[in-house]
Amino acid sequence: MSADLIASILGIAIFAGTSLTYATIGEAITERSGILNLGVEGMMIMGAVTGFAAAFHSGSLTIGVLVAMAVGALMALLHAFVTITLRADQIVSGLALTLAGTGLASFIGERLGPNNGPLVGLQGPRFREVAIPGLSSLPVVGEALFTKDLVVYSMYLFIPLVSFYIYRTSPGQQLRAMGESPATVEAMGIPVLRYRYIYTMVGGALAGLGGAHLSLAYTPGWSENLTGGRGWIAVALVIFASWRPARALIGALLFGGVNAIQFRLQASGTTISPNLLNMAPYIMTIVVLVLVSSASSLRSRLGAPAALGIPYAREERT
Amino acid sequence: MIRFRLERRLDPPRYLNWVVPVVSVLLALVASGLLLLAFGANPIDTYVAMWNGAFGDIFGGEFYSVSETLVRATPLILTGLAVAVAFKMKFWNIGAEGQLVMGGIAASGVALFLPDAAPGIPQNLVVYGLLMGGAAILAGALWALIPALLKAYLNVSEIIVTLMLNYIAILWYSQLFTTSWKDPAGFGFPGSALFPEYTWLPRFFNTRVNLAIFIGLLAAVFVWVLLSKTRAGYEIRLLGDNPEAARFAGVSMFRNIILVMLVSGGLAGLAGMGEVAGISHKLQQGLSANNGFTAIIVAWVAKLQPWAIVLVSILLAAVFVGGDQIQMTMGLPASVAQVVQGVMLFFVLGGDIFSRYRIRVVRQHAEVTA
């Protein structure tokens, strides 16, 4: 493969993988705290539609992104309330969030346009590529990595920061601990339930941000099924990444790369039908999960927070 | 200061099993109404229009609308039962949609190609109905077997695998009716040729209500017997409620995962057969209509009880048919239906705390002195 081709695939992989990376890291943080939120797909698609609508009406990308993150966080708050305070099943509540989010997204996609009309087909503001002087002229990877939009650059900064937080700070250590043994953390005087609320909302905000990157940069505009299961792939990537932010990026690049290859094949006029080509990321998700579970079944089990998905009730401590 | 304290009910009264979900559903309608109001739609007008769309003038002897609601309920009954069987042992089959599609593909394959391939087979409804049903059950069950085996052998998350298999099944089915199975005489429109007429499930009273709804009711009996009257059902319930105890009792998780998913996939597959042989009479757009996902709401709102699943399916079908109606008459998006259903699931889920816990009001200082 020529250097050009690799650079081009890497460039698209990063671009396509950004939304996945944010959503995956967000879910990893939520799961680290002990809460499983399967509503990522619903929060992402709601982030995409509300982010686009807000940017369209305000003309401001910043407002679009902030609204998307706020909506993601609010949806996550609902999940937190239902699972933490009302102690409902986390799996079903997450599914409910995805089902309700998908429905609500297509509903408001028909209502939030001008004059209560649809948003579909409208052109709004979008993130433009900004070349970073110097870095973007690096050989091979320069253009691929450094002629991107601001959301991508934020991701470059965000990954080391969140890794530092999780592994090198005291609140980060508490975050890891409350997913393993909430009772121990509670005994240290740390209000586990309050932090679980917060980290669930952080995960939601990041899923919303991922959705906003889709509707404001990757495929600008709103259409139904815009996320196309990316939220679910993010849930799978959390397992692939063993709950580690840096590995989430690797996984997201892998899937972004598949997208890139799909693009290249379609552009080169392949005879493979788009339907079959579109199966690739879903088949790959299954294959990746199978490989992770079989090659390192012990390690991946160690990677999962021990108290993940188990409701914690102070007075029922055992 | 006054605080609330939750006390687990050790022996929840039986009436809570239906009072709590019914109240939750009613509150969900109120909450959805507020949501509609927020988006500039009058909730009362909307609900009235939805009721008229779903049930029409049922008391005046007009049965067309309600017949369409029953048609819409049919696949929900079968997929709801499919999902409930798996959920009963906390095996999260999110793949009923894909299993339904695979069942639809298999039944279509039989109806489209078997008459030419094996002209010796008697061409009548009984024989072909059984063949299509068998093929659909097999296809759905085999599609469900993939996540079952992966879970049983490698402990791969069934949630992700069943979900991914939905996307794959839907893409494959789109591929079939737009390319290799497309009707050459169809003027380029996507969709297979019409099935031979003897494969059509009989319809009743000049409506689209067909034999499939009775298959659904029979399936409800089957699931009820399986879960509450057999040893396998006892093991499934035990594995769901208390996997530790089940292990001590020597109940095989492995065997039951396979069994449950074969039953679950088979039921969802049958739903697909009902759709192609009872309604569309060909393989075309619309087979994948979110039934497999709505099934999750059906099953949970019905508390996984087979009889309740039949009723809740009709309720959610009414919401769907009503949603189509308000799209036509009020210009509101049909996705209102999905929103209302999603909110219902949340309320039933959250409301469950009232059946599991007793809520006590306590004074803060009392706790301190105690």
Strand content of chain A: under 5%
Number of domains of chain A: 1
Total helices of chain A: the number is 14
Sheet with the most strands: spatial strand order of chain B: 1-2
Strand order of the largest sheet of chain A: 1-2
Helix content of chain A: over 70%
The count of DSSP E runs of length 2 or more, i.e. the number of strands of chain B, is 2
Oligomer: heterodimer
Percentage of residues in helical conformation of chain B: over 70%
| Distance, first to last CA of chain B | 15 Å
CATH fold topology of chain A: ABC transporter involved in vitamin B12 uptake, BtuC
Silhouette of chain A: globular
Q: Give the CATH level 1 class of chain A.
A: Mainly Alpha
Q: What structural class results from the helix and strand content of chain B? A: mainly alpha
Tell me the span between the first and last alpha carbons of chain A.
58 Å
What is the count of β-strands of chain A?
Answer: 2
What pattern of helices and strands is seen along the backbone of chain A?
HHHHEHEHHHHHHHHH
Shape of chain B: globular
Uncertain stretches of chain B = none
Question: Topology, pairings included?
Answer:
The complex is a heterodimer of chains A (318) and B (370).
Chain A: H1 3-32, H2 40-58, H3 61-85, H4 90-111, E1 130-131, H5 141-146, E2 147-148, H6 150-168, H7 170-180, H8 182-187, H9 192-218, H10 230-240, H11 245-267, H12 274-278, H13 280-295, H14 297-303
Antiparallel strand pairs in A: 1-2
Helix pairs in contact in A: 1-6, 1-9, 1-10, 1-11, 2-3, 2-4, 2-9, 2-10, 3-4, 3-9, 6-7, 10-11, 10-13, 13-14
Chain B: E1 2-8, H1 16-38, H2 43-55, H3 64-88, H4 96-117, H5 125-154, H6 158-178, H7 212-229, H8 231-241, H9 243-248, H10 253-280, H11 291-301, H12 306-330, H13 336-351, H14 353-356, E2 357-363, H15 364-369
